[in-house]
């Protein structure tokens, strides 16, 4: 039996040279979202240091975290459900069982947890431990969710669509009010 070529091997593992990915531009925009993370305010040090500062400063920091999550993460999830997931489901041919069902459910959890953080940020009696725990849970879920998208969903499109098809069917949604309008 003939040994697999390097590219055939990478395709079977779901890894692609970055230049051959249909979804490279979307991956790059997600990478910049992860790296921009004013949600670093939700990091251990920022949250735990909040316990030592006055209530007003802590509340302001927590509200900044919640605002970022609402404006960027929740908006990103809405865009995915409107533009990306229908295309992935169609390309994966899941029939009555959408390929993206678990990802959509994770969006429900993300939304619920953002709501919990918002309530904790607005509460008169600060519960630093509860806010920190929920923020840590949420950040873990978001990181795992991004990894699932990059390792499971986007390879479906890389294998089944050209870059032009991807641009027309997914990215052109950016011109219609997507929070990713500035994304490539």
Describe this protein's structure.
This protein has one domain. Helix 4 (55-92) runs antiparallel to helix 5 (101-122). The protein is elongated and about 55 Å long. With 184 residues, the chain is an all-alpha fold. It has helices spanning 6-13, 24-36, 44-50, 55-92, 101-122, 128-160, 163-169.
Helix content: 55-70%
Portion of residues in beta strands equals under 5%
Count of individual beta strands: 0
Radius of gyration equals: 19 Å
Structural class: mainly alpha
Mean pLDDT: 77
Form type: elongated
Distance between the termini: 42 Å
* Count of runs of 4 or more consecutive helical residues: 7
Please, how many domains?
1
Runs in which pLDDT lies below 50 for 5 or more consecutive residues are 1-17, 175-184
Largest sheet: none
Order of helices and strands: HHHHHHH
Keyphrases for this structure?
mainly alpha, 0% strand, 184 residues, disordered C terminus, single chain
Q: Gist?
A:
The chain is mainly alpha-helical and about 180 residues long. It has helices at about 5-15, 25-35, 45-50, 55-90, 100-120, 130-160, 165-170.
Secondary structure elements and their pairing?
Blueprint: H1 6-13, H2 24-36, H3 44-50, H4 55-92, H5 101-122, H6 128-160, H7 163-169
Helix pairs in contact: 3-6, 4-5, 4-6, 5-6
């Amino acid at each position: 039996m003939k040994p697999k070529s390097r590219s055939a091997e990478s395709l079977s593992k779901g890894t692609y040279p970055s230049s051959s990915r249909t979804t490279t531009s979307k991956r790059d925009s997600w990478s910049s979202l992860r790296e921009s993370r004013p949600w670093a305010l939700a990091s251990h040090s920022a949250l735990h240091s909040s316990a030592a500062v006055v209530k007003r400063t802590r509340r302001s920091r927590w509200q900044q975290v919640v605002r970022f999550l609402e404006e960027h993460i929740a908006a990103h999830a809405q865009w995915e459900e409107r533009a990306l997931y229908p295309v992935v489901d169609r390309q994966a041919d899941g029939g009555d069982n959408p390929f993206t069902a678990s990802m959509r459910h994770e969006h429900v959890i993300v939304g619920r947890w953002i709501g919990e953080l918002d309530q904790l940020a607005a509460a008169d009696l600060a519960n630093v431990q509860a806010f920190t725990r929920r923020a840590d849970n949420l950040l873990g879920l978001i990181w795992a969710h991004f990894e699932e998208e990059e390792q499971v969903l986007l390879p479906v499109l890389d294998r089944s669509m050209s870059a032009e098809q991807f641009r027309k069917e997914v990215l052109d949604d950016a011109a219609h009010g997507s929070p990713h309008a500035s994304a490539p």
